[in-house]
Amino acid sequence: MNRSTIDTNQTELTDKVVTIKRVSKTVKGGRNMRFTALVVVGDQNGHVGVGLGKSIEIPEAIRKGREDAVKNMITVSLDEVGSICHDYTGKYGSSSVLLKKSPDGTGIIAGGPARTVCEMAGIKNIRTKSLGSNNKQNVVLATLDGLSHVKSPETVAARRGKSVEDFKG
């Protein structure tokens, strides 16, 4: 796992490489070998992004993946204990990731790819379960889909024209 820090828009982002794969393309003269890097970028404060980079060299693939991840960042709404606001199942392809709200002190209970996304987003208490395909790229993207659909109580209350106390009571 690679871990470095970059500075973008006055926000300190940390990146983590989830997987590096060697891929080949067969052409007339033989096989062309390239590398793909799946990179997760986050500020550990509710912002996370995922990117895929391809290149002939590994460091260049990681750099491209980091740039792609910064472009595709989302904001995650967290509650006061560092967990998500409600349960949700994110889906991508044949992968599904169940994200469950957890009380303080639970920690991050998640498999490898989903754990990386939760850590980079700054989530401190969550339980996840990977369902369906366990392809790392699809699990990461399913986790990101789930986190992007989690709504804060304030957002839901504003959309319905009610107060937050109506939901909690």
Secondary-structure blueprint:
Layout: E1 3-8, E2 11-27, E3 30-42, E4 47-55, H1 58-71, E5 73-75, E6 88-92, E7 95-101, E8 108-109, H2 112-121, E9 126-132, H3 136-149, H4 153-160, H5 164-168
Parallel strand pairs: 8-9
Antiparallel strand pairs: 1-2, 2-3, 3-4, 4-5, 6-7, 7-9
Describe what you observe in this structure.
- This protein is of the alpha+beta class.
- It has helices spanning 58-71, 112-121, 136-149, 153-160, 164-168; strands spanning 3-8, 11-27, 30-42, 47-55, 73-75, 88-92, 95-101, 108-109, 126-132.
- The strands form two sheets. A five-stranded antiparallel β-sheet has the order 1-2-3-4-5.
The secondary structure category is alpha+beta
Mean pLDDT: 90
Strands, total number: 9
The major beta sheet can be summarized as:
5 strands, antiparallel
Helices and strands, in order, run as EEEEHEEEEHEHHH
Count the DSSP helices.
5
Radius of gyration: 18 Å
Estimated helix fraction: 25-40%
Strand order across the largest sheet: 1-2-3-4-5
Low-confidence stretches: 1-7
Assess the beta-strand content as a share of residues. Answer: 35-45%
Identify the overall geometry: elongated
What is the distance, rounded to the nearest whole angstrom, between the alpha carbons of the first and last residues? 45 Å
